[in-house]
Fold each of these.
Amino acid sequence: MTRREGDPVLSETTARQSIDVGFLSDGGELGAKMRTFDWSTSPLGPPHQWSQALKTTVSMLLAAQAQIVLFWGPEYVALYNDAYAPGIGANHPRALGRPAIENWGELWDDLEPLLSSVRRTRKTFAAKDRPFYVERHGYGETSYWDVSYSAVPDDDGSVGGVLCIVSETTERVLGEMQLRASEARYRELNATLEQRVAERTAERHLLATIVETTDGQIQALDPNYRWLAINASCADAYQRIYGKRPKIGDSLQEFLADRPDHLAAATALWARALGGEAFTSIEEFGDPSFDRRVYEMKFETLRAPDGTRIGAFLTGMDVTDRLEEQARLAQAEEALRQAQKMEAMGQLTGGVAHDFNNLLTPIVGLLDLFQRKGIGGEREQRLIAGAAQAAERAKTLVQRLLAFARRQPLQAVPVDIGRLVADMGELISSTTGPQIQVTVDTPEGLPEAMADPNQIEMAILNLSVNARDAMPDGGKLRISAKARTVEPAHGSDLAPGTYVCISVADTGIGMDEATLTHAVEPFFSTKGIGQGTGLGLSMVHGLASQLGGALTITSSLGAGTTVELWLPISHAVAGTIDAVPQTTLRPLPAGTALLVDDEPLVRMSTAEMLSELGYRVVETGSAEDALQRVKDGLRPNLLVTDHLMPGMSGTELGLTLRNQIPELQILVVSGYANNEGITPDLSRLTKPFRSDELAASLANLAKAGG
């Protein structure tokens, strides 16, 4: 062709340079920027002077969809692709062609040793969720990345640079529900690899090294399900789960021919990818005789340079351990939520019981007064007796609420559980009826447990009644007690050690999982309206916890239920529990009683009882008012005070007045029915109470001398 006059003249050098930068032609925005970039300002110099290894590496990373940055030369000059650019924020594009220290300065003390180690040892550095402190958006932040740093050989065989394939995992690490980003996303891997194998031996070696050294699992299939490519990590995974390794050219259909179910699952996924669909899937694969693992797999279409679809490839990752850890975390969180719910319900029911006791105290006291004085005729006395019976039932209900809230009064002493259970056999048989076959099994030599025998008897009776109701057509009820050792992994969360375990097992209808989940919640009941309070199991649960033990329940529909009450063993010698003598209401030695309670109705009924017992009663509504009465000259012989009141508590009042009046007799009354905050040497009485119970407490107080 003859050049015409006026045509532009291209020098031979310019034409050659234009050809030499052709490797940047398919590099997207970064490729275009590199072609127009002023390389005279970069330590690398113009691209046509770069080594073939550098050109090949840059061509590969520009075409890749993965986030890739190359740090080349001793100054670690940065070259990266479109996918990587957003990850460095405002540092792009000034980082292009510049030494890394200029734009990664805030993390250079962290990054530089990693890069130097890879250059020096030629060993790949890989890490998952590695933290890096970066300043990419005008402020500092800690980001997390999956990284793979590999040494890239230069033309002379020395290390030319470090190729960094990265994937940011910051959002998942900070708590959002995301799966790990795939370590590497290679598009057109096989087509590029096959083409360049024929064209450039050096490039083939470079790409093969990158693929083989990554931790990600990479494989590609052609439309006939034959392997076009597979790296060592992926072949290792097949070896682990199937006991054999595929190689390039093998057929997936032949490889899994002896496992048709596995083949069907695998080909169903590959068929979608071979049909042109790009997707991510999490699936479990493997022969149980070897191993079963869960993989996160990203499938993409494999295309030739002209865009023709020639197969599909995937990048995968074994996520079995991560999913198991997530499942364990979810289970622990659910257990924590359940514990918090039960604690909140316990606080609520404890508060309700306290207020209810304050309401019951004047009711019980006045009904008792009406009965003792014989007020009204026969009909009126019958109505009063009925009301008193209802009040006692309400009192029992409150005790069960307090048991669930772990605020019931307990007299924990060494108890012979074997004897206690054996002695209850006849009572349980009469309670459950003739349709229930009751068996009691208690071995000799069972160690004593620390417990309140009255509460344990009530608990066993409650569990037996529940078992009876679960066997409407009859069945078998087995009550046993054994000494058992708790290991650290025990499902009850008990501290390791030896316990006495009381078991109540029935052959009834059992409970499904949903019912079992709510079984110990207060007021939850599967019985009909009016047939139960829903407090039986919750009371036993609270009792066990208050004694330092636990309650465990195993049940399934149609297979019966077993409830186990675990009690800590006693290291003291079992003794005899002194029975509290029944006190006949009679006047006590006369004197002045200072009555302190912030509830007017409680004061009214208690004052009436004290007057009947021969005391002159002085009433106050607070501890502060009571102290003022004493300061003004009042010298009481007896102090009867509520424990929990606004301001100073009754216990604090009693201790203060004892210092002023040493001979003062003190009786602390509590609506919570527990000893928390009450000094052990102060006598206590639980609301609600009748006149005879108040008289008994005062008689014992007088006998003890205060």
Note: The radius of gyration is 41 Å.
Amino acid sequence: MTLTSPNRGYPLERLEGNSGSMSYWSSLFTRVADRLGDLRTAVQSAHDLPGVGRAVTAVRTDASDLSGLLPADIAEAQLLAGVMQRYADAFDAHAKPANDLIDDIETAHAEWSRLNLAADHAGRAAMSAAYGDDQDKIDDTNDAVTEAIGDRDAAKEALDALWTQYEGYYGDWDTAYAAALSELAGGGGTVLTNEARDLLDALLAATSPEDIYRLWLENPELQQEIIDSHPEIIGNLDGIPWDVRATVNAARLDELLETEPEGPHRDELEAIVRALNAGGTPPPNLISFDPDGSEQVTAAIAYGDLTTASEINTLIPGMKGNVEDLLSWGESAKALNESVGPGSATVVWFGYDTPELLEEPDMARAEDGAAALRSYLLAVRALSPEADVNVIAHSYGSTTAALAIGSQPDGLGVTSFIAVGSAGFPNDPTVVENLTNGKPPQIYATISEDDAVARVGRATAPGHPVSPERLPGTTVFDSDGGVDASGGSLPSATGHDALGPGAYLEPGSESFYNVSEIIQTGQPGTERGGEGSTQGFWDANNWWISDEYALIDF
């Protein structure tokens, strides 16, 4: 006989499922969505294909047709990935504990059944004794009945407590199961109206952040409906206003932390929280947040008011960077705003999977990151068309940024591209041409005389061996020590690090000072090789060093 819960009638059954398998399929669907997104980016580029003639027109037409089809497929893959992962999380949170209670409930039910039968027997014995004349026997059987009933009732309380737990877990799992079915059937836990669904389709089909921004502003009555049904999309859709994205992403982060177990993933989420709670005026904003779409948790935090800023700066990390470094990068961002002055806002952009050491020579991470960075920079231009846009990229981050910014002749509207300790720009003729065509952005670069890592990175990477310091038109600035405008000492960069003592972006260093001056005036603030400058290892009088930038001429 199958047992059922006393209050809600749930069967005592083992809930079948495998959260690991569900998460695996979720990751596969996410990867499909990412690859379709990459295809969409490529298709969007085809819209701008230069030239005339039948072949070019055909390519543009095909690109337009494909662009209209891809958003629905991307949305479906994202939906399946999200549903599978949420159901996997619900299975771990509710179904597994329910399954763990089954043996306890069966044991408790058997014990209650035994004691209930014993109480029945004791009652019959007491009833039988009551018809006799033996008072002692009557008293003894009555005491036995009282004791048996007490034991039975205690067992029933214990069984009821277990049933209550089971009903809670089973009910929550049942709700999650129904929500998953509803989401699959209706495209979301909340069924969208036809108008909202049409708007969501149009937002996903839009070919630029400008179009997304326009569509969003034209439909204020549908905004909250779409936010409620698809926060994971709205929180990361370039062209949606920053304050909307920040509110949505902060809420998603809080929700995830309520159920996320201890482990590396939770550590990353908590690192984001620490960065957001570190203070600032205005408080930091989580303008992008994707906990599941990449191998790493990706996020971007804005310091300062992006909507009113006249200088929008973006810090891009390099090799081995991840969101657990956000707090330190945030301090550098706040210091940069303070140094530049009113009107400065700085974004710390951890929007791509940064490479490990063995991946650094390859371009795969840069290619994936460049697509995301390109979209972000276009959103900055769409939402703040009058602001100067400055990109400050460290190490492999400069490789990624060069690939993104150099993808278009107009440099995506970037004003200044500042590379510190660059791992090398891509060896792509189109990228190099677009970065040196005499149009914005102006390129600035520095490499410490004690930075062997960047030099080795360029020398060992066939995909990104180009030294930015040697590109035509680049303004090279020092990071080897100097003095500021007031005569104060500015320490040198003593290695390859971005942050910390002796690092490129450490507040108070010569490199950091020059970055601030470039943003404010367009020129470095110190003289090359001037007062306070020190010699590093690469200045030694060794005949096998070809120049001050390179171990060999690469």
Note: The first strand starts at residue 285 and ends at 290.
Amino acid sequence: MIQMNKIHIAIVAMGLMASACNKSLLDTEPHDKYTEETFWRTPEAANAALTGCYSILRNDGIYGGKGSNNATALWEETMSPNAYYKTNGMAYNSIASGQQMPSSGGIISSRYADCYGGIGRCNTFLKKVDEVPGMDEKQKKIMKGQALFLRGLYYFMIQNYYGGVPLILDPPDMNTQSKLPRNKREEVVAQVIKDLDDAAAALPLTYGASDRGRATKGAAMALKARVLLYEASPLLNPGNNAAKWAAAAAAAKAVMDQGGTGYGLFSNYRNLFLKTNENNKEVIFDVQYMFPNQGNSFDLICAQYNSNAPLLGLAQAYYMKNGLPVTDPASGYDATKPYLNRDPRLQGTITFPTDTFQGKFVDSSRFAITGYGVKKFSVYDTLAPAQAEKDLKGGQSEINFIVLRYADVLMMYAEAQNEAAGPDATVYAALNQIRDRIGMPHFAPGLSKEDMRKEIRHERRVEFAGEGLYYSDIRRWKTAETELNTEIYDFAGNVLEKRTFNPKRDYWWPIPQTEKDLNPNLEQNPGY
């Protein structure tokens, strides 16, 4: 909910006596603070409230950036086999190692609280905006659509990690909401789909330059495709209902076929994630940052802290430039020159020993945790940085974090269509667009559904490495019990730690103990 200061006015006896002569003295209200009653009076106030709904996206529990030296969006990767957070900031490595508990705190508690913070603000906006005088009806409809999109995003995120949660659609009210039990997860998802459908019907395809970053019709449609893809996946669709896959494919195809969006693949994979190319045609929805108003710490994390350190398994996952895995004897892989002639996305995503980074040769001590560093979502790359970017501190970075991009829509369509109907020509066409961008060979014709499934899962891993999607991917595929029950290695093959994953428990996070202390009616997830 919009954080408004409650005003308490102490009236002394003299004031009361004066009011007997002039009752208008009691009809004053402060001009430097707001109450619930005085806030919702102008279109400008309504717009400020909507901005508050967006602002939660930058909270530590969502995509990060507000906190000191924070980069939540980049740390998401460290829960997966792709990366490692050695110091266990925000309890990310506890999750990766299967050691999370209701009392772990960190991301487990902040995600739950921040999602509800966003939901509360959206609920308040949707309830109160109709009371604002002087609102243009067309503009109000668009603003409501944005709030519905954001509420759908926050509810999608919270159910994705915790399962069913209390489904609240009214403004925050401790008297009626503080002891609510959990709704079924399916009920929450049904509301998410409704919110996104309603948002898509209300939102425009595009905005002018001054409104970049606001949710569009395409953003609502793309998020719906992601929701339906997750619902169709093995974790949530154990009976492999083909109709669920078909629904996900149709939702992604609707984005691909929607005219007027201007969506497409940006020409250069590495440059897609640079500040100079923000809001390009591939970006469907992102979290906007601007220093000094509200920056992030992505550059500091990538270049100095290395707390999203890539692992050997990720580096080995990239195919050779000829499209063959490094394990194939015909691939031409040379262990003495392991990064030569590889999928260009490797060098577009990470930096490695023998690479050049920030104008200097990279040796094995440059990124001491695993030997690897991250370039994606950072201004830093091969060349020495400009003077103004030489030593960016916490909160001084401005690169937007991309939540939804067109390549993901293509990949979602290919995965869902393959499961629903097999690897038809449309599956190949979607995937080969992504390969064309990086100059990699097309997928081999005649693949079986099972072989295509393996290729799609591999392609998702390397295409979206560093973007925080792979942890949710291996959970929804129910492969986390294999991929997170193993040792992890640095660039030289040295064991860093042994990870564990309990399939009877760890596919879901625990309800935070802080939330259960406040509301004993919240049933804990099994195994915690």
Note: The chain has 20 helices and ten strands.
Amino acid sequence: MKTPDLRRVDAHEKVTGTARYGADRVPADLAYAMFAVATIGKGRTVAIDTAAAEAVPGVRLVLTRFTEDELRGPGFLMGGGFAFQSLQPLLSDVVAYRGQPIALVVADTLVAATEAAELVRARYETEPFAVGIDDEGATSVLQEEALSWFPDVKVGDAESAYAASPVQIDETYLHPAQHQVPMELISSVVEWRGDRLVVHESTQNAGALRHGVATQLNLDPADVEVISPYIGGGFGSRNALQPHIGPLALAARRLMRPVKLVIPRPQTFHTGSFRPVSRHRIRLGADSSGRLLAALHDAEHQTSRHDLYPAMFTEMTSRLYAVPNFGGRQRLVQTDVQTPGFMRAPMEGPASFAFESAIDALAYATGQDPVELRLANDTATDPVTGLPFSSRHLAQCLTRGAERFGWGKRDPRPGSMRAADGSFVGLGVAVGAHPVLVAPAVARMSAAADGRVTVGVDGHEMGQGIRSAIALLVAEDLGVPVRDVVVQVGDTRFAPQHLTAGAWGTATALPAVHKALRELRKHLGTGDTGTVDVAAAVRATGGGSPEVEVTSVGPGQPPEMLDRSRAGLFSAAGPVFPDFTAFSWVAHFVEVRIEATTRRISVPRALCVVDCGRVASPVTAVSQVRGGVVWGISQALRESSEVDGRFGGFLNTTLEEYPVAVNADIQEIDFDFIDEPDLLLNDVGVKGLGEVTMIGAAAAVANAVFHATGQRQNQLPIRIEHVM
């Protein structure tokens, strides 16, 4: 697919540095904040000595405790609240995990705040703690017993069908904890303008932040503004209210000065969420030809003591193939960490590594080509609900990808292919899927006498290109230049700003914008189609700049879901809708090379073919694919958050010690899109893209490593010692 000559609408701002992120604001009389954090794995603070910190020149406040009259708990996002975890630091002497904030220092300069925070000393009473899912003291619960609204997936009699299957695969896979490490650090600038609180923060959920901090401080949400025009990478780390906002707002009110906090990288490994460690037992039953008869996916993953972060692994694995009997069981393991959360392809990434590795093992066990086995088990109907898929072009992703990648030239024997330098060559394939979710949205649109069209809509610009997708839709519909479309997102002054995550940003915003375009055309008297001279049409109305407001919901969503969204609560629906089930689909093809002596693993080329419905913005879609594949390679070969069994918390909390894929790791990444609009889902025909591009990439790498070496890799990341 050829990328059209279209720049991102925000390209100039980003390249020239005029784009403004959360902490870029420097209002007059700005003060700077820094946290002091707990150095024990679990217990309570007996005493906190702040004398040395308060003596640092320029220090204005050292806050160690707020009363419940001042600051309330925010509630857990997945439990009907607003924050990534229910625990709010600085409300009690309890230390739930290492790295938990125990004091907030505010000073005239960042240097003074940092120095003073390091001088805060605490005495503790310690308690035994567990940071790993196998540690003594870790406790577990079955998810469907503890969280009945997240039931396990069960179709047919999977246990009996598996026991009777001629071919059986039974493997266990371990996926490590990982952190999102976005380029932009977690940061905020808060200020009071009279009784009005204004928060500048890079967030994926300005609505939850607004209502959450209003709840914490007993404010009217109308008196809270959250402004987040750009995010320097979210990937799930900014999905909800962060625990620093409430304390920061109280500090700013006490000082009557704006306050900025930029959390240092090591602290972000403990003050924000992370992808929890998970373990997956996959059992596949098939006949001798590789036709699936049964699949069982037993998973356990980490959560905190104070929240149950739900697992949703089997939602995807139960839909990948035509499996008549499927059994899923998910267990939550409570440990002494902050509440885990979402990280790009949060459940689907680890689940696809496990399930697609097992599918690859089944192909070898039955003597089938891995691509052909997947095609033979394709389905047009959701095996769980019996509903048709709104669209599913996974077979086309596989066949087009195999031809483009040169899969037919592959020697199927493990260890049989060598490069000219003696390196072992392996080719791997894997597929993935991501549920299509849709949230309610509000869109406001106006046209001006100078020909410009302004759109304010629910959505956040995290680098994924939602601005470009919206601007392109408006420009194509009206026949106006993209430069004449002004897009306002991530700002509670223009729309409620529901959480943007799970690849539902475009599928949520664009239908609302499309609906607003229909209404604007009515006001301009231009008909439903055709090019519009906006300036002339506005003048012809004789009534100033026409403005419209519309709302939209997902298929089958009741209108009251808009009220939840306006209240800052999670309101997404799907992937099961009244008449169909909706997923985006992907096929990954990867070549690995393993040096004969050093055993260093490299990925010289990768191909990703995606079915995401209509490609709304080709230039940003290509970036999404490449970014997802890079992250999949990093997931497979680099990233792991190592816990500290001695003192609690995580050990490798800097980018020097938490390796991610870099330019030297990335070579050729090819891509293709099916680009078939999904008009059952919405009038624009778009599904999600951002998450699915990563799903299956790590499995394809692992399967390629097996093809190169004959050694099955059941744990990520795959390191040199694993292929010696």
Note: The CA atoms of residues 4 and 619 lie 7 Å apart.
